Amino acid sequence: MSFLMREPMIPGSGMAFHPFLPPLGPPPPPPPPPFFPGLALPPGGGLALGRPVLESLIAEGGLGFPRGSGLRALKSLEPEEEAEDDPAVQLEARELWELFHRRGTEMVITKSGRRMFPPFKVRCSGLDKKAKYILLMDIVAADDCRYKFHNSRWMVAGKADPEMPKRMYIHPDSPASGEQWMSKVVNFHKLKLTNNISDKHGFTILNSMHKYQPRFHIVRANDLLKLPYSTFRSFVFPETDFIAVTAYQNDKITQLKIDHNPFAKGFRDTGNGRREKR
């Protein structure tokens, strides 16, 4: 992003130049991009979004980090040098996501926060090796419905509850060079889901029995303060959508979690991970 310098302006168009009137500085930066434009499906790969959500990143908790979590030192707000890149993103463990998706993926939400399984992981390519990038994700409502599990299937049960506060989760390695990001799997396994509207830990707040869609964003920027004024390259993988629950509703999903999640020991010990349905 570049700033355009304005010519010195003098009050009153007919007045002569006044040597003691200082010229105005550069104009203020543009406002943040709109929250969520329409989806556009590119050929192959995930769903891409033009310039998506960043409603209040600087507000408390809105960055997905608790206070004092060791973010990198902030740098100058001078615009980043132009870099040549053409980002592409591949979803890791796509087959596992599709296996869950065919049965209707469920993710448990708790007051204290629960990690996702399958975890959201991607591989990035096409980044400029030397440029710095911030990688982040958010989880948004997939529709305006509330659901219930009835007769072994999910069905619409009415209109959605009011939306929870929106939060972005910034990958803790941000910002890092394109070379660093492309050298590894980008893992968001530390992201936690909660139904606690008063959460102070930066967890993603969701409504139970509602369907959600994770979204992944790439921002070329070397400073978190630049996020509201930066261009987002965003990707959605439809097979990662899920319904938030306080306890698993579908026995087939419970079994898949037992079979594939190495941390599902509690389910294996009891043979029954179900609790009272909400």
UniProtKB/TrEMBL annotation:
<dbReference type="InterPro" id="IPR001699">
    <property type="entry name" value="TF_T-box"/>
</dbReference>
<dbReference type="InterPro" id="IPR002070">
    <property type="entry name" value="TF_Brachyury"/>
</dbReference>
<dbReference type="InterPro" id="IPR046360">
    <property type="entry name" value="T-box_DNA-bd"/>
</dbReference>
<dbReference type="InterPro" id="IPR018186">
    <property type="entry name" value="TF_T-box_CS"/>
</dbReference>
<keyword id="KW-0238">DNA-binding</keyword>
<keyword id="KW-0804">Transcription</keyword>
<dbReference type="GO" id="GO:0000981">
    <property type="term" value="F:DNA-binding transcription factor activity, RNA polymerase II-specific"/>
</dbReference>
<dbReference type="GO" id="GO:0000978">
    <property type="term" value="F:RNA polymerase II cis-regulatory region sequence-specific DNA binding"/>
</dbReference>
<keyword id="KW-0539">Nucleus</keyword>
<dbReference type="GO" id="GO:0001708">
    <property type="term" value="P:cell fate specification"/>
</dbReference>
<keyword id="KW-0805">Transcription regulation</keyword>
<dbReference type="GO" id="GO:0005634">
    <property type="term" value="C:nucleus"/>
</dbReference>
<protein>
    <recommendedName>
        <fullName>T-box domain-containing protein</fullName>
    </recommendedName>
</protein>
<dbReference type="InterPro" id="IPR036960">
    <property type="entry name" value="T-box_sf"/>
</dbReference>
<dbReference type="GO" id="GO:0045893">
    <property type="term" value="P:positive regulation of DNA-templated transcription"/>
</dbReference>
<dbReference type="InterPro" id="IPR008967">
    <property type="entry name" value="p53-like_TF_DNA-bd_sf"/>
</dbReference>
<dbReference type="GO" id="GO:0009653">
    <property type="term" value="P:anatomical structure morphogenesis"/>
</dbReference>
<dbReference type="GO" id="GO:0000785">
    <property type="term" value="C:chromatin"/>
</dbReference>
<feature type="domain" description="T-box">
    <location>
        <begin position="91"/>
        <end position="269"/>
    </location>
</feature>
<dbReference type="GO" id="GO:0060429">
    <property type="term" value="P:epithelium development"/>
</dbReference>
<dbReference type="Pfam" id="PF00907">
    <property type="entry name" value="T-box"/>
</dbReference>
